[in-house]
Amino acid sequence: MPNRMPEVDGVKHSLDLETELPPKVAEVARKNGENPEKTCLLIQEFRDMIYERGDCEPHRVDDEYLTKFLRARFWKVENAYKLMCRYYEFRNSNPELHQNVNPMTLRSLGDDNIISISPYRDQEGRRILFFRFGNWRPSKVPINDIFKATLLMLEVGSLEPMSQVVGGVGIMDLEGLSLNHAWHVSPSVAQKIIALIVTCMPVRTTAIHVVNQGWVFDTVFQIFKPLLNERMKERLYFHGTDRASLHKHIDPEFLPERYGGTKPEYPYTYWLDHLSRSEYVVQELEQLGYVAEPATEE
User: Fold this and answer.
1) What's the CATH code of the domain at 34?
2) Residues 45, 120: one domain?
3) What is the pLDDT of residues 210-223, one digit of tens each?
4) Domain for residue 293, yes or no?
5) For a designed S-S bond to 29, which of 34, 120, 144, 213 qualifies (C-beta 3.0 to 4.6 A apart)?
6) Which of 3-7, 41-45, 184-188, 290-294 has the lowest mean pLDDT?
7) Domain count, the chain
8) Please, what's the largest Cα pairwise distance for the chain?
9) Which residues pair with 278 in a beta bridge?
10) Is residue 114 located within the same domain as residue 77?
């Protein structure tokens, strides 16, 4: 395993699986419709709906699992059910993204710094998922590997009760994006990106911040525009190279130095190393069709 850089305060490459929410997050949960006096009833209503309608067949229906779908849709049972159906439809339509996928084979995306996820949270308690598409070499890394890594991070993120409540944030860094990248973005690829990040996963992406975009992005965005509804457009922010604009949304205290922040950058592979040693995470991922390398000691 490569030598690790020293971690700073608030940085921890491990999941926060504590079920008791911090007071600030508990207040957000309450505003989102979470009421301890009603959760059992709503979970059972959700479970009954799954059995009665039969539009999808989830691999489990325990309280813990159903809760993350309800949280993702503000405890509205009908909407949670629709989300679950979209989630399983996406999985069934794209088995190559998870079935028999070994997460450790996706290390190259971390080595090349194409994708990473913050080991700290922003001022709202959200994880930040970073994409640096300019670092992507299509001849070396198939686009499906980017989808695999994104799906994996979202699946793992959805295990955190805190993230279930506050959601996450995406930063799309398009520095170095070229026409070579653009050729690989077809309408079907665009649909898959939106499905993953916005419509099909039981963890909400509350905002997507696009930075360092140039004229190539304008070409690619024409493919996405027809696929975005008004709510999706409201979550999109374009900053170019204006760091002050980004800082209006994410405090620089919670951003890497690259984006005018104070935190060092950490590779995606740190997460893979941790997750491979977590028996709980390995078991959760195996239920979803992933395969794991044997856990190793640090």
Assistant:
1) 1.10.8.20
2) no
3) 999 999 888 888 88
4) no
5) 34
6) 3-7
7) 2
8) 54
9) none
10) no
Q: Write out the two tokens for 84.
A: 């679950």
Residues 104 and 81 in one domain: no
Per-residue three-class SS string for the chain: CCCCCCCCCCCCCCCCCCCCCCHHHHHHHHHCCCCCCCHHHHHHHHHHHHHHHCCCCCCCCCHHHHHHHHHHCCCCHHHHHHHHHHHHHHHHHCHHHCCCCCHHHHHHHHHCCCEEECCCCCCCCCEEEEEEHHHCCCCCCCHHHHHHHHHHHHHHHCCCHHHHHHCEEEEEECCCCCHHHHCCCCHHHHHHHHHHHHHCCCCCEEEEEEECCCHHHHHHHHHHHHHCCHHHHHCEEEEECCHHHHHCCCCHHHCEHHHCCCECCCCHHHHHHHHHCCHHHHHHHHHCCCCCCCCCCC
Residue 74's domain spans which residues? Answer: 23-93
* pLDDT, average across residues 103-117: 85
For the full predicted model, state whether its pTM sits above 0.85: yes
Q: What are phi and psi of 180, to 5 degrees?
A: -60, -40
242 and 158 within one domain: yes
Cα 228 to chain centroid, rounded: 18
- Categorise residue 171: left if φ over 0, alpha if ψ from -120 to 50, beta otherwise: beta
